[in-house]
Design goal:
The complex is a heterodimer. By secondary structure, chain A is α+β, with helices and mostly antiparallel strands. Among the domains of chain A are: 68 residues, no CATH class; 87 residues, Fusion Protein Consisting Of Minor Coat Protein, Glycine Rich Linker, Tola, And A His Tag, Chain: A, Domain 2 (2-Layer Sandwich), CATH 3.30.1150. Chain A is built from 4 helices and 5 strands; from the N terminus they run αββααββαβ. In chain A, the strands form 2 sheets. A 3-stranded antiparallel β-sheet of chain A has the order 4-3-5. Chain A has a two-stranded antiparallel ribbon with strand order 1-2. In chain A, α3 crosses α4. Chain B folds into 2 domains: 124 residues, Rossmann fold; 258 residues, Neuraminidase, CATH 2.120.10.30. In chain B, a hairpin with a 6-residue loop joins β8 and β9. By secondary structure, chain B is mostly beta strands. Chain B has 4 helices and 31 strands. In chain B, α2 runs parallel beside α4. Classes of the chains: A alpha+beta, B mainly beta. β5 of chain A pairs parallel with β1 of chain B, so a sheet runs across the interface.
């Protein structure tokens, strides 16, 4: 009689382990697929060439260089920020004394942390305002010569897959500029994740808070920033409703 | 063993991939923490003749409260400006936006005989939205209180937490030459003298509902603890044990009072009920234990003891167990008070030149000095934890000051000529 070798049956542990591995792989596959689909839907793959960090209002129009004149646009002088003004009877605006351009007198006593932070923030804002003014002046020059472009790479006549057409980044830059003028918070390091929808005509279709900071002062500042920035939104270049999540947070403040 | 290693390796490979598959976003950051530009439109008469002093008082109270609050850069217009309406649609937001305002308060009043009706509206200028609208009617003499109440509402609308401006401050005043208890608005107006016994009255403390005060008085020759009902003026002596009966502190539940009694020899911390019956003795130590202060949840007490040689702040559970030392720096630390949120404890530290107000975490970390000018004592929190009221001799006579809990905006609120000390801020009335 020929002995039959005993057939080894898989034990329960092996089966469970195999099941766990298969399930994990399936979950991973699904997550990756859904993530890639989302990214394709929201952020079209573009050739992103940020030459001068210049915001472009209308990616399909105009040129960066005036026809027949390749000289660079003159840089605008920094604007002098006016102090807050109060309205007067009749709807006119009464100017409150503008801040003097003279350097402030030497301070008596050491400044507090808060004063130092406010001063630092003011300086940073002034720098950003100067950059913005220069950028807008350059933009005005381009718009003035729209339609006479040379079709150079990186110019606004390029199509949406070329330079200057990263719409999500452009909206980010508009939000950032507006946020610098509204930021206020009462908690140490608030963060709020907001999903913004922009209609085909460039109007804000709506926004919703996906992750709250729990700081109403900060969230009101974000809401004001969106309301301010909305006026500068151009229509989405692909003619479709644009949707993107933006995370708002104070600069240089890390969570504990 | 090999199987476990295999699974761990597999998970190690899979997890980063899963975690990296989070939803994408773009960051929007900005530097600093700026103040919100808040404009106060000149209050206007809604019906009948205008009364400039009414408009002036409304604007001044709003400006004082909201400037002290911290998040706002407040600008109030001149009396004769702005005659458009106060309701949404009755004025042009663009004018205010051009003026740099982000928030706008419009208000109007109607006078009738001895009463006044005031309507306040808070707007977000950029979003062109109404954020709060309130109408109050009261005596003309209550105009300041009415306006403080709306300032509380502004903080609620903007920060999510109501302000404390409509609360009162009880304190010890020497305006008569004796140390008597008085009551005033938080900004120093409407002073009312509560006691006139010609003796020494100290350490007032409000009940949780703000309707009753306990305080120590020597009016019967020794320091006893009294409880006074503020609206009726009725008063009862609740602790007159032998020795001192001092530093009464009302528990957040309104049922218990922590007190320092020396009836058994040296000063120890005891618990009484609100009628003065002894519930428990919390400390047993040959040293002096005084100045108990409740945590907001009523579970712990901070107190001062010289058991290690010099007065220092200690913390214990409300049943007297788990005593631990809180302050380790400084040779004389006293008068602890727990913040309403429970995250900080204020106290006074003796330094060169006098006492200074400090804050410290209940675990002993992050000790921070808030005052530096003159001698500053008796810090007490506002009921929302935004502000601290304290007494200071920075300008000679002892007077009451208020500051934000970060030490900013230190402002004198005493308006009388006498010396003021031992302030305590009531809950909202």
């Amino acid at each position: 009689m020929i002995p039959v070798p005993a057939q080894k049956k898989p034990d329960l542990g092996d089966m469970v382990m195999l099941s766990i591995i298969i399930h994990l792989l399936l979950v991973l596959l699904l997550i990756r697929l859904s993530s890639q689909q989302w990214r394709r839907a929201v952020t079209p793959p573009v050739y992103y060439v940020d030459l001068v960090n210049l915001p472009v209002a209308h990616p399909r129009a105009g040129t960066s260089a005036p026809a027949g004149n390749n000289r660079p646009a003159p840089v605008a002088t920094p604007p002098v920020k006016e102090a807050m003004q109060l309205p007067v009877k009749g709807g006119k605006v009464a100017k409150v004394k503008a801040p003097s351009l003279k350097p402030p007198p030497p301070r008596q006593g050491a400044e507090s942390d808060r004063e130092f932070q406010e001063r630092l923030a003011r300086l940073q804002r002034q720098t950003e305002e100067r950059h913005e003014a220069s950028a807008l002046e350059a933009l005005r020059q381009k718009v003035a010569t729209a339609g006479k472009g040379t079709g150079q790479g990186g110019s606004p006549v390029a199509n949406e897959s070329e330079a200057g057409s990263d719409y999500a980044s452009y909206i980010q830059s508009r939000l950032k500029d507006a946020f610098a003028s509204t930021i206020a918070h009462q908690s140490r390091a608030p963060e709020v994740l907001v999903r913004i929808s922009i209609a085909r005509n460039g109007r804000l279709a709506g926004y919703r808070i996906e992750r709250s900071s729990g700081d109403p002062l900060f969230e009101a500042a974000v809401a004001r920033a969106i309301a301010k920035a909305e006026k500068t939104f151009p229509p989405p270049p692909d003619g479709k409703v644009f949707e993107q999540a933006y995370l708002f947070r104070p600069q240089g403040v890390a969570k504990k | 063993m090999n199987k476990v290693l295999f699974i761990m390796t597999l998970l190690g490979l899979l997890l980063p991939a899963v975690l990296s598959a989070q939803e994408g976003y773009l960051e929007v950051t900005a530097p600093g923490n700026r103040q919100i530009q808040l404009a106060i439109a000149p209050p206007q008469s809604l019906t009948g003749a205008a009364k400039p002093e009414v408009a002036k008082e409304i604007a001044e109270v709003l400006q004082f409260d909201l400037t002290l609050a911290g998040p706002f850069a407040v600008r109030a217009g001149a009396i004769n400006q702005g005659t458009s309406g106060i309701r949404h649609g009755e004025f042009d937001f663009a004018v205010w936006q051009a003026a740099g305002a982000e928030l706008l308060i419009k208000s109007g009043y109607t006078l009738a005989a001895d009463s006044v009706t005031v309507e306040y509206r808070l707007y977000d200028v950029i979003k062109q939205q109404e954020l709060a609208a309130k109408r109050y009617t009261g005596r003309l003499a209550d105009l300041r209180r009415i306006t403080h109440t709306f300032a509380d509402e502004v903080l609620l609308a903007i920060t999510g937490e109501r302000g404390p401006f409509s609360g009162k401050i009880a304190y010890v005043s020497k305006v008569t030459g004796n140390k008597e208890l008085s009551l005033m608005d938080y900004d120093g107006y409407h002073v009312q003298q509560l006691t006139s016994n010609g003796s020494i009255n100290l350490n007032p403390d409000f009940s949780a509902n703000g309707r009753e005060l306990i305080y120590t008085s020597f009016k019967k020759g020794k320091s006893d603890l009294y409880r006074r009902e503020l609206f009726t003026g009725s008063e009862v002596r609740i602790a007159s044990y032998s020795g001192t009966n001092g530093f009464g502190a009302w528990a957040p539940d309104g049922k218990r009072i922590a007190i320092s009694l020396s009836k058994d020899g040296n000063a120890e911390i005891y618990l009484l009920n609100k009628d003065g019956q002894q519930l428990a003795r919390l400390t047993t130590n040959p040293a002096i234990d005084v100045s108990p202060a409740w945590s907001p949840d009523g579970a712990r007490l901070a107190f001062v003891s010289d058991r290690f040689g010099s007065p220092q702040v200690f913390i214990m559970a409300a049943d007297g167990t788990g005593v631990r030392r809180l302050t380790i720096n400084g040779s004389y630390n006293a008068f602890p008070r727990w913040s309403p949120k429970g995250d900080r404890i204020s106290y006074c530290r003796q330094q060169e030149g006098g006492f200074q107000v400090h804050l410290i975490n209940p675990d002993g970390s992050d000790d921070q000095q808030l005052t530096s000018e003159g001698n500053n004592e008796h810090p007490r929190w506002s009921p929302d934890g935004r502000f601290i009221v304290f007494s200071s001799r920075r300008n000679g006579r002892e007077a009451l000051y208020v500051m934000r809990s970060d030490g900013g905006g230190q402002t004198r609120i005493s308006r009388g000529k006498g010396e003021d000390s031992h302030p305590v801020w009531s809950p909202r009335w």
